[in-house]
Amino acid sequence: MSVDGVSDIFRRVLENDDIDAESDFFAFGGDSLLATRVLSAIARTYGVELTFDDFLLAPTPGTLAEKVLR
Amino acid sequence: MGALRSHGLFGSFLEVAGEQPSRPAIVDNGTTVTYAELERLASEVARSAGPGVVGVPATHSAGTVAALLGVWAAGGTYCPVDPAFPETRRRAMLDAAGCRFLLGSGPLQGREVPAGLAYVLFTSGSTGAPKPVMTSHRAIEATIRSLRELFAMETGDRVLQFASLNWDTCFEEILPTLTGGACLVFHDDAHSGSFPRFLRMVERERITVLNLPTAFWHELVTYLADEKSGLPECVRLVVIGGEAANPARLTDWHALDTGRVRLLNTYGCTETTLITHAADLHGPYEKVPIGRRLPHVAERIGEDGELLIGGQAIADGYLGLPEATAARFVTIEGERYFRTGDRVGRTPGGMLVHRGRIDDELKVRGIRVDPAEVEAHIAAHPEVGAVAVTGLKMADHTVLAAYVVPRTSAGLGVDLRDYLRDRVPAHLIPSRIAIVPDLVYTASGKVDRRRTKEIPHER
Questions:
Q1: How close B64 gets to chain A, by Cα (Å)?
Q2: What ipTM was estimated for this complex?
């Protein structure tokens, strides 16, 4: 399921195990540079190319996973 | 309004525009602006702006480049004011810089400033207010002459405009390009956050020169190494700067199929006008060197290892701040020098290597941050008793962390990040805010920022 997969990516990039499906990337210390790592990991894992604008509109694993599935 | 000023860098631009009026000066998301068109756009701005310091709401566009040239054409001083900054901050900037006019808006009260200034830009200031740095036409001209040579600019070059037009790094891209007859390329895909999109754009736009913040380059190299790919063939030069390059990423870079691409590490401060030191990187290095001084630069190394920079390109000082100016701009044996606050050493080969700061100043995504400035803003909140701000290494790069002692045992009833968003630019908002019972103090009673970050806290 991609929500779990995206949550895993968030945890790895932010080096924080407290992250769940509702965690806001930016509230957990993420910034635009770390966002590029999430986007690269998503592209590699799911073959979906998202941008920083997508991320700003969907900054949690739950919402971002919806964009991956779409 | 009088005739256009044809001296200095604007004069060099006019000369190039006269020689090659129909060549592209700027391509902005597919729309070409020729040298002749850019000259015409600049003279329109010159007619409306007039002399004095002109505030420019700088967006990532050809129009803002025309505004920069137009301000100079009218004999004025460029002062970018980021439209994304909170209004209180923008007003403080316009005021501190003594702006007489805000482009697109109208006249302001303004103040008299020293003659000959090309631009006023801000660096982080410990009082909570940003410090306006005064850079003269003489300084920027000397630097750009060195940079055209360093980058080996040719008329066929196509330079990606990566830096925001609100920071001085943008002049490293704009000015050698437009005084060298080359082409400046703006494209939204430069900042999309997607590396595949970035690389396709570089190839499609036939970019030859990339000037990237070192933190971004680190991410790019990681991506290319993971994908086992390289940069598009058209790229001949990559310039990096803003913070220390990671030797491990440099090793990754050299393992990529990018051997033909020249990689240039650069060093400089706003007060010394863009780049003062540069090194072609080969490696491997234990610490990546910042290189040798450029021809227009004079240097001294102080007793404590602090790098002092002199020569034609040092700034005139901080506008309206004589004490801050006297503290950092010093005269030694009749020559003016800027105390960088950076500690350096020299390799056997004669290159300088950065060895940290003599103070607590930080680099966050390549931007200088004085932790005292962020502390001043947080301490102004009525529920905050004490605060220390420092840098935290997170996933290989530096982020800001604030350690806050609430005024009462009830804790904090607000989100400090929301509070800061209305007052300071995004780069001054800590990524992490931790509530702590107390800060750690030195024997002399000053906050020990480094030891404070080791105390246990709740997130």
A1: 23
A2: 0.89
